[in-house]
């Protein structure tokens, strides 16, 4: 046997012995049972005989205790997580607007003047070029509109990512910052199944409906976003809640929409109009009082649309019931 073969065999033997020692260290020395670590007491205990193999272990966690996620986040001393909703992802310093020191005492005139000057220079340093200034303004618009529409933070994050992609692909020349920001938020809301109508978007946006629709189609096409058509059922919970109607009305409205979908009545019609008409028809069937005017105000559509659609929904539901 050659010297190289002997050396290789010795190395393999050492590795095998190390693995054997490691496996034995994970077993109880008395009964060879499995060992578990009790982090609260800092002990390693055998699950079979209860022998304490190690004690007074070092706790590498925090010295405080927390009983839920909110309390854990509150006691944590690390910084805020990065977010796409800020142009610098939240990594820069932010000077608060309160003119108070660390003890809550108000600053005097000279100190307030100094802090205002520091805030001004801090804002200048946070945006290094025109693209960052563009992004900062757009993300502020997205946050403002999402707050006015009651959209969750997940939708705002998605809209921020869509706008960043549009900015990176150089899709903004010839289009306003507000228009692209509104289109990104509209697409994000539909992707996350929190749809808002174009009328609602126009009400909180700084651009008109024509520019919004044109920019939205352009962004969807150029970025290749997959956005499914809006489902009328996604508007039902919000409308019934705003009108103060019961769960029975909501269930009946969903049933009417399903019946209309089975008859092919949803094709080519506004999902907002279908949802509003279904809620009005469901309220009539459930003997709950609501007027067409109240429904049209909540859904932001005309009463004529409700009158035309709710009759079609009732007929479709009647056909379904008779067939059953």
UniProtKB/TrEMBL annotation:
CDD domains: CYCLIN_TFIIB_archaea_like_rpt2
Keywords for this protein: Initiation factor, Metal-binding, Protein biosynthesis, Repeat, Transcription, Transcription regulation, Zinc, Zinc-finger
Composition-biased stretches (Polar residues): 81-93
GO molecular function, one term: TBP-class protein binding
GO cellular component: transcription preinitiation complex
GO terms under biological process: transcription preinitiation complex assembly
Ranges for domain TFIIB-type: 24-54
Pfam families with a match to the protein in the record: TFIIB, Zn_Ribbon_TF
Sequence repeat feature ranges: 140-223, 234-315
Keyword Metal-binding: yes
Chain residue ranges for the region called Disordered: 1-24, 70-93
Top-level taxon: Archaea
Chain positions recorded as Zn(2+) binding sites: 28, 31, 46, 49
UniProt biased composition (Basic and acidic residues): 9-24
SUPFAM superfamilies referenced in this protein's UniProt entry, alphabetically: Cyclin-like, Zinc beta-ribbon
Job description of the protein: Stabilizes TBP binding to an archaeal box-A promoter. Also responsible for recruiting RNA polymerase II to the pre-initiation complex (DNA-TBP-TFIIB).
Family statement: Belongs to the TFIIB family.
HAMAP family per record: TF2B_arch
Full protein name: Transcription initiation factor IIB
Organism: Halapricum salinum
Lineage: Archaea, Methanobacteriati, Methanobacteriota, Stenosarchaea group, Halobacteria
Gene: tfb
């Amino acid at each position: 046997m050659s010297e190289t073969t002997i050396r290789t065999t010795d190395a393999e033997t050492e590795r095998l012995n190390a693995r054997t020692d490691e496996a034995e260290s994970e077993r109880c020395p008395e009964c060879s049972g499995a060992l578990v670590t009790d982090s609260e007491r800092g002990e390693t205990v055998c699950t079979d005989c209860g022998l304490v193999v190690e004690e007074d272990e070092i706790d590498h966690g925090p010295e405080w205790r927390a009983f839920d996620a909110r309390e854990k986040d509150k006691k944590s001393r690390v910084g805020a997580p990065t977010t796409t909703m800020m142009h610098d992802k939240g990594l820069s310093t932010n000077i608060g607007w309160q003119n108070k020191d660390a003890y809550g005492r108000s600053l005097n005139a000279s100190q307030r003047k100094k802090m205002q000057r520091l805030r001004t220079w801090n804002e200048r340093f946070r945006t290094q070029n025109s693209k960052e200034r563009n992004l900062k303004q757009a993300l502020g618009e997205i946050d403002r509109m999402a707050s006015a529409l009651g959209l969750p933070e997940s939708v705002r994050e998605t809209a921020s990512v869509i706008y960043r992609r549009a900015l990176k692909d150089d899709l903004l020349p010839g289009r306003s910052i507000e228009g692209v920001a509104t289109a990104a938020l509209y697409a994000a809301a539909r992707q996350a199944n929190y749809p808002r109508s174009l009328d609602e978007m126009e009400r909180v946006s700084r651009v008109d409906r024509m520019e919004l629709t044109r920019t939205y189609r352009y962004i969807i096409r150029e970025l290749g976003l997959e956005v499914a058509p809006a489902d009328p059922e996604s508007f039902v919970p919000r409308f019934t809640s705003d009108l103060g109607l019961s769960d029975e009305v909501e269930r009946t409205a969903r049933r009417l929409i399903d019946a209309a979908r089975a008859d092919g009545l949803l094709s080519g019609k506004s999902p907002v109009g279908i949802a509003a008409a279904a809620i009005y028809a469901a309220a009539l069937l459930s003997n709950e009082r609501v007027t067409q005017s109240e429904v049209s105000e909540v859904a932001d559509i005309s009463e004529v649309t409700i009158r035309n659609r709710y009759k079609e929904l009732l007929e479709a539901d009647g056909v379904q019931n008779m067939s059953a």
